[in-house]
């Protein structure tokens, strides 16, 4: 059964060692970078919740939920998407190349939304995510789960939102 586990010293290497296919590398940040980002926002107005995605005892992917992700943009030149202010986001999602096309991404997003609806940082109206315009697989998955583009971008990525 698929479930999420917080990343800690016991499982961090399981997650770091997961990889996407070479053709997908431009679509997904490396898990090491994501984990560093998660811990670097501690003490800021942005919250990050990094999780390993597990099928039973086997790590199959990585997921990171964010809250108020816009707050970290103060250190960047780009303006954040408005939806990233005081709302939740699925900041990262990756399924290891060995476990793709099994429905794990879809199920993991459902688990992420279940977690978000526990309101770990307080209530919010929306959950957003973003994806590269060329990533049709991701776009189709997110649309099928009810996410809709809101006209904003996050850098070069298309932003899609779901009302919570």
What does this structure look like?
The mean pLDDT is 93. A seven-stranded mixed beta sheet has the order 1-2-3-4-5-7-6. It has four helices and seven strands. It has a single domain (2-163), classed as Gcn5-related N-acetyltransferase (GNAT) (Aminopeptidase, 3-Layer(aba) Sandwich). The chain is globular. Helix content is 23%, strand content 32%. It has 164 residues and is α+β, with helices and mostly antiparallel strands. It has helices at 12-16, 31-40, 104-116, 136-144, and strands at residues 2-6, 47-55, 58-67, 88-95, 126-131, 148-154, 157-163.
Task: Write a concise synopsis of the structure shown.
The protein has 164 residues and is of the alpha+beta class.
List the helices and strands and how they pair.
Blueprint lengths: L1 E5 L5 H5 L14 H10 L6 E9 L2 E10 L20 E8 L8 H13 L9 E6 L4 H9 L3 E7 L2 E7 L1
Parallel strand pairs: 4-5
Antiparallel strand pairs: 1-2, 2-3, 3-4, 5-7, 6-7
The CATH topology label is Aminopeptidase
Can you summarize the main beta sheet? Answer: 7 strands, mixed
What are the segments in which pLDDT stays under 50 over at least 5 consecutive residues?
A: none
Query: Which architecture name does CATH use?
Result: 3-Layer(aba) Sandwich
């Amino acid at each position: 059964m698929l479930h999420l586990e917080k990343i800690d010293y016991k499982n961090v290497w399981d997650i770091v060692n997961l990889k996407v296919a070479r053709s997908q590398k431009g679509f997904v940040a490396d898990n090491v970078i994501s984990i560093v980002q998660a811990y670097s926002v501690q003490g800021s107005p942005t919250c990050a919740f990094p999780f390993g995605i597990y099928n039973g005892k086997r790590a199959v992917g990585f997921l990171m939920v964010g809250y108020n992700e816009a707050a970290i943009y103060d250190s960047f030149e780009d303006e954040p998407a408005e939806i990233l202010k005081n709302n939740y986001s699925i900041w990262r999602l990756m399924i290891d190349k060995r476990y793709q096309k099994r429905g794990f991404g879809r199920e993991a997003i459902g688990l992420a939304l279940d977690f978000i609806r526990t309101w770990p940082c307080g209530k919010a109206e929306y959950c957003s995510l973003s994806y590269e315009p060329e990533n049709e697989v991701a776009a189709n998955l997110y649309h099928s789960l009810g996410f809709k583009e809101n006209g904003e971008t996050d850098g070069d990525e298309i932003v899609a939102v779901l009302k919570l």
